[in-house]
Amino acid sequence: MKLSFIPFLLFLDGVNLQVSQSPHDLVLSPGSPMKVTCSVAVTSDPYMYWYRWTLTDGLAHMFTSVGSGIVDPVSVDGFSASRPNSSHFVLESQSVAPSTPAVLYCSWSIHS
Ligand SMILES: *[C@@H]1O[C@H](CO)[C@@H](O)[C@H](O)[C@H]1NC(C)=O
C-alpha cells in the first residue's frame, strides 16, 4: 500500500473524562469515509458540539445539537453530523480530503 499522502485525524477526549469518542484516533487515506461517535454518560440530554482545529483556521465550531434528531448546520466542508439519541453525537464524512489534516473535538454542555 502506498502511504504517500495521508491525512492524520486525531480525536481527543474532553478535558474531563465525561465525554468519550469512538474510535479515539484514526488514520485514513484520502477518499476514505469517516465516522466518529461521541458519547456523554454523565448527564441526560445535553447540548453537544463538534469543533475542528486546523493549521489554517485554528479552532472553529462545526456542529451544535440541542437534542435528539436536531443538528445545526446540516453540513460543513463535506462533513455531516447526526444526533441519533440524547447521549450520542455522530460526525461523518463520505470522503476525507487529503488537504485537511485536523484535530476534531467533541464537547457538551448542560442546557438551561
Ligand atoms: C444511541 O446511538 C448510538 C449510535 O447510533 C448507539 O450506539 C446507542 O446504542 C444508542 N443508545 C441508545 C440508548 O439508544
TrEMBL record:
Upper lineage: Eukaryota, Metazoa, Chordata, Craniata, Vertebrata
One Gene Ontology term from the biological process aspect of the record: cell surface receptor signaling pathway
Organism encoding this protein: Scleropages formosus
Keyword Signal in annotation: yes
Range of residues in the leader sequence: 1-17
InterPro entries, per database record: Ig-like_dom_sf (IPR036179), Ig-like_fold (IPR013783), TCR_beta_variable (IPR050413)
Keywords for the protein's UniProt record, in alphabetical order: Immunity, Signal
Keyword Transcription regulation: no
One term under GO cellular component: plasma membrane
The protein's name in its UniProt record: Ig-like domain-containing protein
